[in-house]
Amino acid sequence: MEQEDKNGMLYTVDGSLNAVISHFYHIYHNGGAPVIKHLSPSLEMLLLFNFGTSIPISFNNSSSTKVIKKGCSVIGPLKQMLNYELNEGADSIVVNFRLSGFYSLFNVPLNNFDGQTVYNPDELTGKYSWHELYETLSEITDVKARLTIIADYVAHYIREMDAVVQPLIDGEHYFYNPATHPVKAIASDAKLTERTVQIRFQKYAGYSPKELLRFLRFKMVIAQLTNTQEKMPDMFEIVTAFNYHDQSHLIKDFQQFLGTTPQQFIKDLKGKEFFTVGSGPKSLDVIE
């Protein structure tokens, strides 16, 4: 089973905001030695409010490190494993956006977001000040109160979903049906060309339908490996079960998403501060 996160708490979202935000995640470290966490890719856009000590981050197996300082930052779409180090005094809130939720709030095309650059949200749009919101939140210590203020702020500034985005949202379920070609199905339902569907995914979500399909399969592989009790599962069985061409095809996905091999993942990451987005202990408090 996946390891329990002792430095995080997930807060679910309800009501109309749930169409934009999948969940909030509170990250903290109250004391002791530094802890390095590994977050599996999710393709989601992340909005971070850091109230505590600086958080060094890196991606996959890269030695290049960025630092999340106090303030508000944006990262995403999260296409590779995010490594982050929590030191004593760490205290951050992460807002996880749904498919086109980030675009609905910022009205910024996601085509050029590389997934690793740390952005200042105030430089993405001049319509409202995230710095002012951060300063307000800094004066509060109660986590639920902070989350409620963030939720109200987002709800106030969120734009109505563009009509051109709706076919992508309505057709999201096609990506979970292996018997269906999602792009063709969405194009047929919305009377669009397949090329139009692909372009809209890039603009409003920040990734292509092909990337989404590839990620969803890999996500199932990770779930299988994480939950199995076997010390070293048969990789040929994984290849067959998830319709990979061969073992090198599977390894290629591991290199792409995690920067490692399946065997090294099991040896170095499984059960060792490796987490998937949306997992972790859940608070009884629901944010609306």
CATH homologous superfamily title: Homeodomain-like
Report the end-to-end length measured between terminal Cα atoms.
30 Å
CATH class: Mainly Alpha
Average pLDDT works out at: 93
The radius of gyration over CA amounts to 19 Å
Quaternary state reads single chain
How does the major sheet shape up?
Answer: 5 strands, antiparallel
Helical stretch count?
A: 11
How many domains make up the coordinates?
A: 1
Q: What share of the residues does DSSP label as strand, in percent?
A: 15-25%
- Structural class by SSE content: alpha+beta
Q: Which runs of at least 5 residues are low in confidence (pLDDT < 50)?
A: none
Domain HTH araC/xylS-type: 183-268
InterPro entries: AraC_XylS_family_regulators, HTH_AraC
Protein name: HTH araC/xylS-type domain-containing protein
Pfam family, one: HTH_18
Describe this structure in words.
This protein is globular. Helix content is 36%, strand content 18%. The protein is α+β, with helices and mostly antiparallel strands. The two termini are 30 Å apart. The strands form 2 sheets. It has a 5-stranded antiparallel beta sheet. A 5-stranded mixed beta sheet has the order 6-5-8-3-10, with no helix packed on it. It has one domain: Arc Repressor Mutant, subunit A, CATH 1.10.10.60.
